Amino acid sequence: MSAMERWDIYDANRIKTGKTMKRGDEVPLGACHLVIHICIFNAKDEMLIQQRQPFKEGWPNKWDVTVGGSAIAGDSSAQAAQRELFEELGCRMDFTDVRPHFTVNFDGGFDDFYLVDAEIDIETLRLQYEEVQRVKWAAKDEIFRMIDSGAFCPYHKGLIAMCFGMRKKYGALAL
């Protein structure tokens, strides 16, 4: 991650404004930036989770979903997902023509969630020292307990449940 990392600025309708901002600067009022999260699941209905480094700004030592990060200037959402997955875990996946399963809007941006099923041997992952201290597989109930205990980033449990429930399909209907 570069000290001069730049983000594209979007308007509320998710249209690029042609302007950028420097990572760490306050998002201008009415502006938005793009964040991605990837949740990887295995056949045992577990999510691959990562523990953030103790020196990482924002949620140090907390467990988190598989991968997350901001899109850098010029990235599409899918390009950011592909790049972040490789940077943080050394894992290559092709996100060309892959859409996020859902987007969560937050003050100052859009957070695209990708839900992926993949059997990954965690022993083969190359963890990015600056970001990730370790990874493991965890079931939904274990993640809920970790949220309750304060060991996991304080996501809404409903968001985690939605990630587990919406994998393998797009759309809000349970069809």
How would you characterize this protein structure?
This protein is α+β, with helices and mostly antiparallel strands. 19% of the residues lie in helices and 32% in strands. The strands form three sheets. The chain has a four-stranded mixed beta sheet with strand order 6-3-8-7. It has a three-stranded antiparallel beta sheet with strand order 5-4-9, with helices on one face. The N and C termini lie far apart (41 Å). The mean pLDDT is 95.
What's the story with the biggest beta sheet?
A: 4 strands, mixed
Q: Class by helix and strand content? A: alpha+beta
**Spans of at least 5 consecutive residues with low confidence:** none
Basic shape: globular
Strand/helix succession: EEEEEEHEEEHH
